[in-house]
Specification:
By secondary structure, the chain is mainly alpha-helical. It folds into 3 domains: 2-213, Clc chloride channel (Orthogonal Bundle), CATH 1.10.3080.10; 224-422, Orthogonal Bundle (Clc chloride channel), CATH 1.10.3080.10; 435-558, Roll (CBS-domain). The protein has 24 helices and 5 strands. The chain has helices at 2-8, 10-43, 64-82, 90-96, 103-118, 126-143, 148-167, 170-182, 187-206, 224-256, 265-279, 288-296, 301-320, 328-348, 357-373, 376-387, 390-410, 415-422, 434-438, 441-444, 458-464, 488-491, 518-528, 548-567; strands at 451-453, 472-476, 482-487, 532-536, 542-547. The strands form 2 sheets. The chain has a 3-stranded mixed sheet. A two-stranded antiparallel ribbon has the order 4-5. A hairpin with a 5-residue loop joins strand 4 and strand 5. Helix 6 packs antiparallel against helix 7 (148-167) and helix 13 runs antiparallel to helix 14 (328-348). The longest helix has 34 residues, at 10-43. 51% of the residues are buried.
Length: 570
């Protein structure tokens, strides 16, 4: 009774989503505190210090990343001995599984992220924040037996609340849910998502966490020429972002070819990260402290270029060799460095641009994050909630839209969907495409297809299948395999026609397989230019028949269901 009322009431759904957001905020604080606690133990930093902000690295600290990598490798190896399937993240859950996630698996992924970040690997905790928030929401929604569309909204709300709590930015968290996790804006999901993001942010601030990532502002007023230059900066960020995502995949392939057990790979990656950290300590961890320092520092162009290369290499190695985490904050840090380098480079070549280097850093921060993570409005609102500068926000939106368009046109993936693509998935966003995969030929076909051998005479065909008995007959060869289709109208077109019925068969070279999705089915129909096709198994045996009209009608019905989910209950 209670579950039925909750399922039927948008007000109840928004209220429960708000509670889920508060729980997600608590989970974010727990993950953050755990990782910082490990860094305090391993590196001796204070409670208010950031690892990437330390000036010098003690020689003994060089052992932390390799030792942490070894521990992570062993823990992961023990886990994968019992569970061989990859852990489902929020994007995959919403795109393919209707919002269903495992709370136990999410806890383990968060543990991996805490250990990776805690030992200094160049990865962020934002993946763990979103994972835990989404898993809490999925568990809660499952307990209330929510509809598929509502559960997907809950998963987005939980993930967005985790991000909102981490950055102290509810609008950022809400739009992270809309753009990255749910994949769309809809009337029905505004209240749950915004309520959860506000609750997550407020609970984090109340408990002493979730502050802004930086405390700064830009001093210049922007003019038209600045927006044109920031468009170029967005293009540069897009190219660098795509290069980083491809290099992560290359690093994974290189690591997979190394001799020795798989659990040693994170240790090897830890050795490489430690070597980079010895020369550039700012490459450690996600980069919160380094970002705050570098925004106000006067770094030369060569120092900026080296730091960009070192940080990118550290993040690529960390992810490629098995550390768990994300590139959310690393992309923000890299973008800030690229933006400042862009402003200095313009000055060096004699361009009078009048752009405050801090403004360029903030715009670059948004552009790079959009290139790698996606979500142009997400990153734009992050700059707005950080600076309160609307002119700078518009400039960030300019660079973000440019970066998003270039990445979508030339690459087509964000970092999360690119990792799924490497596993064999084809999704490019969190849009719900599972219903498309359920519309397969095997599910939609009719299994009672009329058949006859190709050697049978046309007279026998007419005797067995009089007009009105069926629309078509599947022709089989001597071995019982598919050999075409004869429409009944064709067999009765010429009353004087004789000979084997197999001579009338059409679409001999066109058929469907049971696993074909609706898009593949419609493509075959278009190429064959026919109204009906046989569905065959791997051996060529006929399983059934599917008509183009029925497939089109089923597709239209599912599209209508998706439309109703977007506009809410009617």
């Amino acid at each position: 009774m209670v579950r039925g009322r909750i399922r039927a009431s948008e007000l109840w759904l928004a209220a429960i989503a708000t509670l889920v957001g508060a729980a997600s905020g608590l989970a974010t604080l727990a993950v953050s505190s755990s990782a910082h606690g490990l860094q305090s133990i391993f590196y001796g930093i204070g409670p208010h210090q950031r690892l990437s902000a330390i000036g010098d690295l003690a020689p003994s600290a060089l052992l932390v990343a390799p030792a942490g990598g070894l521990a992570l490798g062993l823990v992961t190896w023990l886990w994968t001995r019992r569970r061989t399937t990859p852990i489902v993240d929020p994007v995959e859950a919403n795109a393919l599984r209707g919002g269903r996630m495992s709370l136990r698996e999410s806890l383990f992924l968060s543990l991996q992220g805490i250990l990776s970040n805690g030992c200094g690997a160049s990865v962020g905790l934002e993946a763990a924040y979103a994972q835990m928030g989404a898993a809490i929401a999925s568990f809660t929604g499952g307990a209330f037996n929510l509809r598929r569309s509502d559960l997907r909204t809950f998963v987005g709300a939980g993930a967005g609340a985790g991000i909102a709590a981490a950055f102290g930015a509810p609008l950022t968290g809400a739009f992270y849910a809309f753009e990255v996790i749910i994949g769309s804006y809809a009337v029905s999901n505004i209240a749950p998502v915004v309520g959860a993001a506000l609750a997550g942010s407020l609970i984090a601030r109340f408990l002493g966490g979730g502050g802004p990532i930086i405390d700064t502002s830009a001093s210049d007023s922007l003019v038209l020429s600045h927006y044109l230059l920031f468009t170029v900066l967005g293009l540069i960020c897009a190219l660098i972002g795509v290069a980083i995502m491809r290099l992560v995949a290359m690093a994974e392939r290189m690591a997979s070819r190394l001799p020795g057990p798989v659990w040693l790979r994170p240790m090897i990656g830890g050795l490489l990260v430690a070597a980079l950290a010895w020369f550039a300590p700012q490459t450690l961890s996600a980069g919160h402290g380094a970002l705050a320092i570098d925004l106000g520092a006067h770094l030369a162009m060569d120092a900026l270029a080296l730091l960009i290369l070192a940080k990118a290499a550290a993040s690529i190695i960390s992810l490629g060799f098995g550390f768990r985490g994300g590139l959310f904050f690393a992309s923000l840090f890299l973008g800030s460095l690229v933006g400042r380098l862009f402003a200095l480079a313009l000055t060096a070549v004699g361009v009078r641009h009048g752009i405050d280097p801090i403004a360029a850093s903030l715009v670059g921060m948004g552009g790079m994050a959009v290139a790698i993570i996606g979500g142009p409005f997400t990153m734009t609102f992050l700059v707005l909630e950080t600076t309160g500068d609307f002119a700078l926000t518009a400039a960030t939106l300019t660079a973000s839209i440019t970066a998003s368009l270039i990445v979508r046109e030339t690459f087509g993936y964000s970092f999360s969907t690119w990792r799924l693509h490497l596993r064999g998935e084809t999704i490019r966003s969190a849009h719900d495409v599972a219903w498309l995969r359920n519309l397969t030929a095997g599910r939609m076909m009719r299994g009672d297809a009329a058949t006859i051998t190709a050697a049978a005479s046309i007279e026998e065909f007419r005797r067995r299948f009089p007009l009105g008995s069926t629309r078509r007959v599947v022709i089989l060869d001597d071995a019982g395999h598919y050999s075409g289709i004869v429409p009944l109208s064709t067999a009765y077109a010429d009353p004087d026609q004789t000979g084997p019925v197999g001579a009338l068969a059409v679409t001999k070279a066109a058929w469907l397989t049971p696993a074909m999705t609706i898009k593949e089915i419609m493509r075959v129909f278009d190429q064959a230019e026919t109204d009906e096709l046989a569905v065959l198994d791997e051996g060529g045996d006929v399983l059934g028949v599917l008509s183009e009209g029925y497939a089109t009608r089923r597709y239209a019905e599912e599209l209508e269901k998706a439309r109703r989910d977007l506009v809410g209950r009617e």
